[in-house]
Amino acid sequence: MARPRPATKKEVVQAFRTREILAAARRVMDQRGLEALTMEEIAATAGVAKGTVYLYFQGKEDLIRALVSQVAENLLRDLQAITARPLLPQEKLTQVITLLLKNLEGERALFPVYVRDLMSRPRRVPSGRTRQLWALEEEIMALVTRLFGEGMAAGQFMAANPRLLTFLLRGLVRAVGFYQLVEGKENAVQEALPVLLTLLSSGVARPAPFQGEVAAT
Description:
Layout: H1 9-32, H2 39-46, H3 50-56, H4 60-83, H5 89-106, H6 111-119, H7 129-153, H8 162-183, H9 188-203
Helix pairs in contact: 1-2, 2-3, 4-5, 4-7, 5-7, 5-8, 5-9, 7-8, 8-9
């Protein structure tokens, strides 16, 4: 197996500068909201010239998409850590649901952009950052699908199409996002978490056999 090529000095600088600009954009967004995000404000916060920001991002929309992809990358990493733990599938699923909802709560400002870009998939095949987001979402879907398959193989989950169950779970999480957005609910995740855990545990998990049952004579 060929060893990966070491990054050049230029690539290292580009990666560092990209992270620096995204971190500045995140600070502006957290303080003033997504609507107040401007290239001028980001450049000032990052301590660089406005033209420097345009060397790495085509414009505000491109930069926001990069933020969304960064969120997806972090979510994928955290999901990989959960699914690699030596836990029962049901325990992993509980942690996955909790993580998905907590992520939704922390990234509420970017949620509309995320949904919009994913929903553009049937209409056209974009390039660049939207395609990157689709690839990350597919990795997330594949990870959760494998978890459902693992639970079925262990006899803990109902027999069903694991890919379908993954779509249903992601749909329920996004429904909480819409509820949070439309109703302006600050505590939407806290309200939804026990409901979603109950729905999944009662609907997907197979009931354990009753240990006290006496065999018929």
